[in-house]
Design goal:
Elements (H helix, E strand, L loop, with lengths): L6 E6 L3 E9 L6 E10 L3 E2 L2 E2 L2 H19 L5 E6 L5 E10 L9 H12 L7 E13 L2 E4 L9 E12 H12 L4 E7 H9 L2 H6 L1 E6 L4 E7 L2 E8 L3 H12 L3 H11 L12 E3 H4 L6 E3 H25 L10 E4 L8 H9 L3 E3 L5 E2 L11 H14 L3 H5 L1 E2 L2 H14 L1
Helix pairs in contact: 1-3, 3-13, 4-11, 6-7, 6-9, 9-10
């Protein structure tokens, strides 16, 4: 990939829009980060567009920052999609092998994946990803790649990730109206896995938890495949809201208290440790107990982790993932969070940072940039030879349909 046509990851978060501009290195194993941009996410809430004009302005602001840093106009981007409207379901497809000699070809795999999509019934959803887990050739189960094998009947067990049509259209419309073409819509936490998880972690079993401001996204991997995906409607912003209510202070002061003094482990805070609110904001008065703040944080963190654990229980992986839990997103930086995660999940836990980067921009290594970097890495993987296309079949006619739809109404 030349510098004239870099890879761009566009992450539309609930509080911040982030852009990463990158090019793969010669060998393709690393990403060179050329520039980044960020802007407050006005007009976006919980992954959904709440104001078209405000969202366009926010996206444009982040893109302009990145363009100023790189000196290259952004014309295409891999766009992350998030939000509580996204759901996943397991599907099963069956087809007869087409050729008389019984050899399974790529067309057969494509047909069985298409057949699995017929199980997705609601008319108001768009399929974002069809992720094959295992194939069955005649009675042989657990086949990872059936191409070239012989058989009569081909089956697939797959995970379908889908989003509400209206929400997908609104997001797509906002991006197109900034003058940027969408190369692919990718579930944010799935893209982030490209940046922070190793192949070995995905093989032995790992959960990736993206703690955003309004939502938390979970993706579970095992044997290299996606086992489960879930979106939880609670995030780090709810911790801030709890502190604001508990201390009877403003949201801005509560956010400062959380970032500067907060911890999820009250037992590590002295009983006499205090926070003078006037030092944060002269308009405020009073001194509050730091231990009280920690107890407020711990209660909300415990609730988030309890909801995540219920998602793990759905696939019988609660406490059973050898590579543990990797935390990303702005909320992952909260003090004491990793220790609480180890205790609550009974698993190893760590904060995930983007891997294999060449850059002088320090902040791109932070966990909140994992999704934007992952989107660029997703594009790099596609260009390295299309391995991603067979592994994670994205229904690109969604993009085609929406591109035509948006251009019709904006022309």
């Amino acid at each position: 990939m030349s510098r004239e046509a870099p890879l761009v990851g566009l992450d539309l978060g609930s509080t911040t829009v982030r852009v990463v501009v990158a090019t793969p290195t010669e060998g393709g194993s690393e990403l060179q980060i050329l520039g980044v941009g960020e802007h407050s996410a006005d007009g976006i809430s919980k992954g959904a567009i709440t104001s078209i004009e405000d969202a366009i302005s926010s996206i444009s602001g982040a893109l302009e920052q990145a363009e100023r840093m790189t000196g290259v106009p952004v014309t295409h981007a891999y766009v992350g999609i998030n939000g509580t409207h996204i759901s996943s379901q397991e599907v099963h497809g069956v087809v007869a092998v087409a050729k008389a000699d019984g050899e399974i070809r790529e067309e057969d795999v494509e047909r069985v994946i298409e057949a699995s999509q017929t199980m997705v019934s609601p008319s108001n959803v768009e399929i974002l990803h069809v992720i094959p887990r295992t194939f069955t050739v005649d009675n042989q189960k657990g086949v990872k790649d059936p191409i070239g094998m012989s058989g009569i009947r081909l089956e697939v067990d797959a995970q379908v990730i889908q989003g509400l049509t209206a929400q997908v259209k609104n997001l797509t419309k906002c991006v197109y109206r900034t003058g940027v073409e969408i190369d692919e819509l990718v579930l944010g936490v799935l893209a982030a896995s490209e940046a922070v998880l190793t192949k070995r972690q995905k093989e032995i079993g790992v959960a990736l938890l993206n703690i955003g401001a309004s939502t938390s996204s979970l993706m579970v991997f095992e044997e290299g495949d996606v086992l489960h995906a879930g979106i939880i409607p609670v995030g780090a912003g709810h911790i801030t809201n709890d502190i604001a209510i508990g201390l009877r202070t403003s949201i801005d002061v509560a956010e400062r208290v959380k970032l500067d003094f907060g911890t999820a482990m009250p037992e590590e805070v002295g009983k006499r440790d205090e926070i003078n609110l006037a030092e944060i904001d002269p308009k405020e008065s009073g001194v509050v107990s730091r231990k009280h703040v920690a107890e407020i944080i711990e209660a909300r963190v415990a609730e988030i982790f309890s909801m995540v654990d219920k998602e793990l229980q759905k696939v019988d992986r609660s406490g059973l993932l050898p590579a543990g839990l990797i935390l990303i997103g702005g909320g992952a930086k909260l003090a004491g969070l990793v220790e609480v995660a180890k205790r609550e999940f009974r698993l190893p836990a760590a904060v995930g940072n983007p891997l294999n980067l060449i850059t002088a921009i320090d902040k791109v290594h932070e966990p909140e940039y994992a999704t934007a970097v992952g989107l660029a890495a997703w594009g790099a993987a596609l260009q390295r030879g299309g391995a991603r296309q067979s592994k994670f079949s994205t229904v690109n006619d969604v993009i085609g349909k929406l591109r035509g739809w948006v251009k019709n109404i904006t022309s």
